[in-house]
Structures
1.
Amino acid sequence: MTPDRVTSRFGHGSTAMEVVAGVDLRGKNAVVTGAASGIGIETARALAGAGADVTLAVRNTAKGEEVAQEIRKTARHDAVRVEPLNLADFDSVRRFADRYLARRVPLHILVNNAGIMACPLGRTPEGYESQLATNHLGHFLLTGRLASALLAAPHPRVVSLTSIGHRLSPVVFDDLHFERRRYDKWLAYGQSKSANALFAVELDRRGKISGLTANAVHPGGIMTGLQQHLSREEMDAMGWLDADGKPRVGFKTPQQGAATSVWAATAPELAGRGGRYLEDCNESLPATADRPFAGYHAHAIDPASAQRLWAVSEELVGETFNL
C-alpha cells in the first residue's frame, strides 16, 4: 500500500449519482462496456448525467438501445450512443475500436465493466477459457486498440472492474485456460478478476509518462445478471439470500454498486493516482483474516505478475501495445 492512501467522503452506501453531484463532464467522452445491464447501466447514467458523451458498448444492441433511450430521459442528456461489442470475439473488439477511432474524438474515460461469472466451461474460437477471455483479454485488446484515442485526451482514466473474487485464485500462468487442470468455474472467475486488477497495475505504470491513470474497482456484492449461472441452492449455500430469497444485508443496489466505478472515473482526489485497488469509494486496505471479504490480496497487485500478464496477453491477442 502506498503511503498516500486515497480516501473520500463516500462509502459503502453511496450511489453513483451522489458521487457525480457537482462534477462537470461536459465535452468529455466515455465508453462503458456491459452497459445494457446491472451496474453498467448506472455507471453510464451517472456519467451522462454529469454531461459526458457516453457510448454503451454491449452485446445486445436492441437492449442497449432501450437502455440508451431511458438514460437520455433520466439524465436529460441526448449524447448516449450504442455500439455492438462482444468481448469474447476479438474481431468484434477490433471492429468496435475501429469505429470509435474513425470518429476522431478523444476518449477521456474507459470503464471496462462487462463480465461473466462462474459459468460452465466455454472456449473462444482461439481455445481460450471464456471467463479469462471475456473479463480480461477482451478488455486488454479493447484498451490497447483505443490507446491513441485515450492518449489524445488530457489525463484519461481507465477503470478495470475486479472483484473480491480475486481471492479465489491468482493468475495461473502455467495453465491459464484449464487445459491440464480440471475446470473449476470459481477458480476461473477468480483468476480473471486477479487479471483485471493486475491489468490496472501495469497499464497505470505504462501510462504515467502520458498522463493516463488506471485503477481497479471492486464494486461490492450486487444482485444482477452476473448471477445467471448460479442456482438458488448455490446462492443459499453461500449465504447470499435470506429466507425470502432476497439479498442479505450488505449487498448493494446497482446504483450503489456503480458508485466506486464512477468515483474512479471522476474523483479529483484520484488525479494522477493509479495502479490502486478501490472499493466503497476509497482506496482499499490489504485483506486480513478477520476481513476475508474485503480488501485485496497481494497477488492481485504484484508488479512482476502484472508485467508478466501484459506480455502473455499480448501473445494471446496477437498484438503489441506500446502504452
2.
Amino acid sequence: MHKTGPQSRHRLPFRWSFRAACVAFFAFSVFIFVRVAFAQDSFGQPSQEPPNEERFVYKLTPDVPITTSSGVQNLSAIWHEKPVLLTMIFSRCARVCSPFLRSLNSAVSDAGGLGTDYRIVVLSFDPKDTLADMQGLASQLGLNADPDWTFGVASPSDIRSLAAATGFWFQWDSSTQQFDHASLVVAIDRGQLVRMLAGPSVPAASLREVVQELRGKFVASYALAGKVAFRCFEYDPTSGRYSLDWGLALMLLPGTCAILATAWVFFLLPASRKKRNLI
C-alpha cells in the first residue's frame, strides 16, 4: 500500500507550481511572438498630412529586387531604361487602392508619355500578397496586358526600405482587418526621387506637371530663404495652366526697384535740377 509521507505532500504543490510557471512562460512567449509578427505588418507613423518633400526629394531610392511576371529583377533595371512612377498598395484593399490606381491610369491617359518617357511600377506592401494576387489585381483593372505597367512583390525588409525612402507608411487595423496607409506615387529618375504626389486620387494636371519634369522641361517654381516653397505661377488644376501670381511679382520686385532708382538718378533728378535753374 502506497503511503503519502511529508516529502510527497510538499512535492505535489511544487510540481503544480512548476507546471503553472511553464504554461505562463509559454503563453507569454506566444504573446510576444504575435506582437512582434503583428508589428512587422505595420511601418511608419500614420499621418493626415502628406510627406515633407524636402526630406525625400533628390535622395537615392533603394535598388531592391522585385518579383514580377518577368521574373526577379532590380528596380534599377527599370529606371535605367526610363524614369519610374512608383506606388505601393495591397491587393485585398477594400478602400482606396483600386480607385487610386484607376485615377492614376486616367491621369496617365491624359498626360501621355507612358512607355516613352516613363513606366509605372506597382508594388504590394502586404507580406501576404503573392505575385498571383498582384496579377489578379492588374487583370481587374484591365492593365495586365500593358507592358508599361509592372505589378510585383518584394520582401518585407525591402518594402520597408522603400517606404522609409519615399515617406510611405502603412498600419494594420485589427478592427477592420485592413491596412490604413498613405496614397502616394513618387517619380524616380535615374535612381533619385524627384517628385511626390499624395492624396486619394491623382489629378491629371498634377501628373502632367510631373511628366513635363521627367521630360527635362522647366517647371516654374522658386524657394524662399528658410525653405519655404511657393509657385511663381498660380496653378489651375482644372485646366493645367499657369497664370501670374504674387510669387513672380516678388521675384521681379528687386529688379524693378533698381530700374526705377536708376531712372530717377539719371533722368528725373537732372530734369528737376534744370527746371529749378530756369526758374
3.
Amino acid sequence: MKFYRSLVVVSTILISACASQASRDIGFDKLAPRKAEQALNNGVRLYEDGELKTAQKNLQEALNLGLTFDSEKVSAHKYLAFIYCASNQERQCRDEFRRAFEIDQEFKLDRTEIGHPLWGPVYNSVRADLLSKGRIKP
C-alpha cells in the first residue's frame, strides 16, 4: 500500500511538471496527458518548423481545449500574433497581443522578438495604446 501511495505522489508531480517551460525544455511535455498542452506544444513546434497554418490550428485548439496556466495561454496568443503578423493580418495580430495583455498585464516580448520588423512595431503599438488607457502597468 505504501508503494502505491508513493507511485501516486510521483506520478502527480511528473504530470504537474509537464506543463512548465522547464519541463518542455527537458522533454517531460511528451508525458503530458492533457490535450490542450499537447496542442500548444505541437503548435509551437510547427511554428518553429515554418508550418504556420497547421501551427495556427493547433494553437487555437489549445486555447479552445482550455489551457491550465496563464503562461501557456499567453504563449498561445503570442505565437498566434506572430503568425497573423507574418501573414499580413495586422488586425488579428493586434487582437492576439491584446488578449495576451488581458491575461498578463506585464506581458513582454524578449529582445529578439521585440526587434522583429513584422510584429515588434505592432506589439509596441498595442502596448502603448493599453498603457495610455491605463489598462496595463508600465
